[in-house]
Amino acid sequence: MSDDKAISVKNVTKDFYLPHEKSSKSLKSTIINVYRKKNNELTTQHALKGVSFDIPKGEFFGILGRNGSGKSTLLKMLAGIYQPTTGSIETNGKLVPFIELGVGFNPELSGRENVYLNGALLGFTRKEIDLMYQDIVEFAELEKFMDQKLKNYSSGMQVRLAFSVATRAKADILLIDEVLAVGDADFQKKCYDYFKGLKKTGATVVFVTHDMSAVREYCDRAILIEKGHITHEGKATDVANEYLKLFMPDQDPKKAKKGITRFGTGEVKLENIKHIYTEEKLNISFDVVNMTDSTKEGLNLGFDFYTDDLLITGNGTKYIKGYEKGFILAPNEMKHFVVEFPNNFGNFDIELTMHVRNQGGLNICDEIKPAVKFRSNNTHLVRFFKVTLPMSVTEN
Amino acid sequence: MMKQILSLDRYRYSLILLRELVITEFRLRYQGSVLGYMWSLLKPLFLFVILYFVFVHFLKVGSDVPNWPLALLFGIVLWNFFSEITNNGVGSVVGRGDVIRKINFPKYIIVLASSVSALINLLLNLVVLSVFMLITRLDLSWSLLLTPIFIIELFVFGIGIAFILSTLFVKYRDMNYIWEIITQALFYGSAVIYPLSMIAKSNNHLAQLILLNPITQAIQGARWSLIDHANLTSASLGSSVLMQLFPVLLSIVTFMFGAWFFKKNSPYFAENI
Q1: Is residue B104 less than 8 Å (CB to CB) from chain A?
Q2: Is the terminal CB of chain A with fewer CB neighbours within 10 Å at N or C?
Q3: Does residue A87 surpass a pLDDT of 80?
Q4: Which of residues 26-55 of A touch B (CB under 8 A)?
């Protein structure tokens, strides 16, 4: 690894082998399993699936991702707490992790004793702490409480004490996990001041957080992790934007599981899609919502009917009288639609598309496939093939 | 060059940690008790009083060994030392799980810290023993210089077992119960509370066999060197050189295997605890 890099991560994967039982493995189950030669009781969880990146010295580097994306696993591997299943991680310089503040804090010990214990875990000798003890206590504003047991501290006092020790750590590389998420406004200001100070010292900082304003302000570069992969890498502000896009409402993981695909700009969205049918009719009702603060014109709805992924028939609002030029939604307006089809065409998966037709062509706002899985009980079927399906529209 | 500095740093870090963990363990042990550290002395003393009355006074065991009560106390002190290293060792790694999951540090320090606490306890207990030795005006022989060697042997054997047990306990939480039972068996099987001569009288081979156990060998050796030469050792029973060396070798092998086994598994403690 060249000298200008602080951290080099090459093709790292991490698998966890989780037993089905909740409790830890007992000897009994092992003996039974050996006897039965049954080893399939473990589920493999792929937390990271091939991650590579480099962090140059002196950089503020953000690791972003949703809960469960694998970012904390990655941080723990950088800290040497977990070992990568494959791949390699190299670090260059003294590394101090803050996965949690106050590691090793013991409620039965006094504040003073905890400072020495926590300090030792960060690599300080008793003498070194003796020298900085006064500063630590003053910074934490706990002069009167140091000989009390930690269990009698409020959680805010504990965090202040822990942070006060942590900020003494002299390291080339600091790994910080969500530290700024705790404490009141006053304490957070201290944290930010500490961050500003770190930038001047030339330390490399790896920072895991959900606070995008902190990422934009302090990080030079960032990566976004989704399901164990790096999906975006680059300037911190750009990656922060990508992170926020993950929380656009069309990313519904529940629906994705059921084989429903959904995409589009999300400017106008389809919601509350329901269907009912009688012997003669199929009614599909849904809401169309303008998610933006501007008026949307030229809106069209499309309905495509599939059998086994084969487009059989369909229709669209632009073929209906009164909707030829599309309809209009005021900013943030919601309209409820009911669309009626004849029920004489068998079983179909119905795809709904919300699109805008303008000079630039067709712009898909929201497309859901399938929006409706229609299973008719109708035995008397008239098949339509590549013809427009009769349809009527009501709105309110 | 860089590597050397880093490894020196790591060695220094280990020492700082070891020291703090030992201090913490001592502080926490007798938290809130009135007599505090005194219990470290009182516990073996009371056990000694009980066993003395049962075995020496009522059952008349050990009347043929000179200064048997002193040897009995010494044996109990040494046994407690071994039992503390291993029994505290089993759960030591899991007990520090919260720290292991949050920071990377040399894990063997945890096991070492609990062993060093036991060692400090032993030294306190030896103070009590020497008071009794003064009271009974025991004649000391130059062989007492050998006593530390036997204590070191017991320490090495105990740590080796603690390494193995603490590693196994991460995955198999039955280990502490199993070891408790084994400790009970070893307590009666290691000639702690009865003189080995009792067995040697009727069955010399069995006595030789019992002395293959490093615990017995170390305790008997320590008794022989410090209290009275009448305490039997492998040499005095006429065992072969191989049989005399076996417990020592077993201690070293156990330690080396334990250290290797622990080192091999320790990178995965964080995710398995």
Answers
A1: yes
A2: C
A3: yes
A4: 26-28, 30
Element (H, E) at A49: strand A42-56
CATH architecture of A5-23+40-245: 3-Layer(aba) Sandwich (3.40)
Domain range summary for chain A, segments of one domain joined by +: 5-23+40-245, 261-395
Low-confidence ranges of chain B (pLDDT < 70): 1-8
Q: How many helices (H) and strands (E) does chain B have?
A: 12, 0
| Interface contact B20-A120, CB threshold 8 A | yes
Number of domains into which chain B is organized: 1
Residue range of the domain that includes B152: 2-272
Phi, psi at residue A270, to the nearest 5°? -100, 130
Nearest Cα of chain A lies from the Cα of B218 at a distance, in angstroms, of 32
pLDDT tens digits for range B205-227? 999 999 999 999 999 999 999 99
pTM (2 d.p.): 0.74
Percent of chain A with pLDDT over 70: 84
Chain B CB contacts of A30 under 8 Å are: 172
pLDDT at position A385 is 45
Contacts of B31 in chain A (CB under 8 A): 108
Q: What is the CA radius of gyration of chain A?
A: 29
Complex-level ipTM: 0.85
Mutate to test the interface with B, among A74, A124, A125, A130 (most CBs of B within 10 A): A125
Span B122-158, pLDDT tens digits: 998 999 899 989 998 888 889 999 999 999 999 999 9
Between A295 and B188, residue with greater pLDDT: B188
CA atoms within 13 A on the CB side of A130: 3
Q: Which of B187, B132, B167 is nearest to B264 (CA)?
A: B167
Nearest alpha carbon to residue B254 among B216, B221, B215, B219: B215
The reply to whether residue A26 touches residue B16, judged by beta carbons under 8 angstroms, is no
8-state DSSP, A388: B
CATH number assigned to the domain covering A261-395: 2.70.50.60
Q: Is B172 on the interface with A (CB under 8 A)?
A: yes
In Å, how far is B167's CA from the nearest CA of chain A? 14
Nearest to A116 among B20, B98, B105 (CB): B20
Angle subtended by helix axes A111-121 and A126-140, to nearest 10: 120
Nearest CA in chain B to A94: B6
